[in-house]
Write a structure and sequence with these properties.
Elements: H1 2-29, H2 33-40, H3 57-77, H4 80-98, H5 120-140, H6 143-169
Helix pairs in contact: 1-3, 1-5, 3-5
Length: about 170
């Protein structure tokens, strides 16, 4: 159970930290109408619900702001030592990418996330921030987009369950 909680927190932080690069990319794309049209249509090879929802420019801007706020709030939860460990992991990952190396399948960027030694209060704060930002982002969506997002999440949940059941059958 503790590992599952840590995994959720690690995913939340990784998502928050990567959201900035998407925000920068979207800001660059918003300067050119042709590039903007490309960012609003789903791209082949990309996964996830956000790319297939057909977000408007205004929706993209609102979601990016929510993500920036969420990241800032989560970063404020960490101690200076925890921030240093996260920064070191990010720099190591960046160096690995620049060297042309890709992580092995199943290897996670935050494999040493448990080393952060988050307190229960920190975990609770991060969980609350994530839940709040999720609700704010969903409020930006139209009912049709919300339905698409909900369907995507349900499909992802079913795939996870199938993988877990398959892994339990293979010792």
């Amino acid at each position: 159970m503790k590992l599952k909680t840590l995994s959720l927190i690690a995913g939340a932080i990784a998502l928050t930290l990567t959201a900035t690069s998407f925000a920068v990319q979207a800001e660059i794309a918003s300067s050119s109408p042709s590039q903007l049209a490309q960012t609003q249509t789903p791209k082949k090879g990309r996964k996830g619900p956000w790319q297939s929802l057909g977000l408007t420019e205004a929706q993209q801007a609102q979601i990016q702001q929510i993500q920036r706020n969420s990241r800032t709030q989560i970063e404020a939860v960490f101690t200076p030592e925890q921030k240093a460990k996260i920064q070191a992991a990010m720099e190591a990952r960046r160096a690995q990418r620049q060297a042309g190396q890709r992580p092995q399948r199943g290897q996670r960027q935050w494999k040493n996330f448990a080393d952060l030694n988050l307190t229960q209060a920190q975990k609770d704060q991060i969980r609350q921030i994530r839940e709040s930002s999720k609700k704010q982002m969903e409020a930006v969506l139209t009912p049709e987009q919300q339905a698409k997002l909900k369907q995507f999440q349900e499909n992802a949940r079913q795939r996870r369950q199938q993988r877990q059941q398959g892994n339990q059958g293979n010792p």
